[in-house]
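Q: For a teaching handout, I want to show students what a protein-ligand complex looks like in token form. Below are the inputs, and the small molecule is NAP. Please produce the holo structure.
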Amino acid sequence: MLRQKTAVVTGGTRGIGFAIAKKLASQGANIAVIATRGGEAAERATETLRQTGVTAKLYLCDIRDSAAVDETAAAILQDFGAVDILVNNAGITRDNVLPGLSTADIDDVIDVDLKGAIFVTKAFVRSMMRKRSGSIINISSVVGLMGNRGQANYAAAKAGLIGFTKTVAKEYGGRGIRCNAVAPGYIATEMTAALGDEQREMLVKNLPLGRPGEPEDVADAVLFLAGDGSHYITGEVIKVDGGMYV
Ligand code: NAP
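A: Here is the structure, written as tokens, with NAP included.
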């Protein structure tokens, strides 16, 4: 149970992040959601979290902006008192073969998927150090472990996130803070909705478990890493990929 705990979930308004936020809320954690877009859908997602009986609040912040991240973290700490669980989930793709990747495609993906997670972690780690406890979970990707044609920028960012995870695990283990990564495979969300039918069939055909993953499959792994059941695990990468990278 995560009652009395507070979790921050970046990109928690939809897709995998929303499933993670719902899973943590279902165990009693209060939730601070960070996303760039407000509006009806984001408000509805936050209201869904509240309906589980926890406190949930949406903070609009572009995690590429380190000053905005610091301000948002200060507001969250003011509102919730402390943060016990941080899930760096926000991410984007800008896919193309290497010669086709624009400088903006490279910058955008590294800025959100890698630098954004570093900024957010940096903004919360001191308060976790003061509490001498915390669980940080970074949502990487199997692509960061095995590479993927057409995703050089994304694979580099997600591999970088794994190096970051291991470093935070080493730097803050002595302060009671654990840091792990989850590496999803092919999960059905808006991010993967752009795949063509042929590409989708090919991906699924090669999966030992024979189906795409659901956001809840990733959320289950995050819940395990967030809670006490994983208290001796840090610096680890858990693949949630239906066997894609066996
Ligand atoms: P998604 O449906 O596209 O959702 C992405 C989330 O990130 C949204 O809530 C979005 O909120 C937020 N976000 C994007 N840019 C942001 C920024 N600059 N600042 C703050 N928030 C931002 O993606 P998803 O499929 O759920 O993916 C979630 C994570 O899992 C990503 O890190 C992704 O790389 C990883 N992953 C996904 C798959 C997959 O198959 N789907 C596989 C492996 C790994 P706004 O739109 O409001 O900004």
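A: Two things your students might notice: The chain has one domain: 6-233. The chain has nine helices and seven strands.
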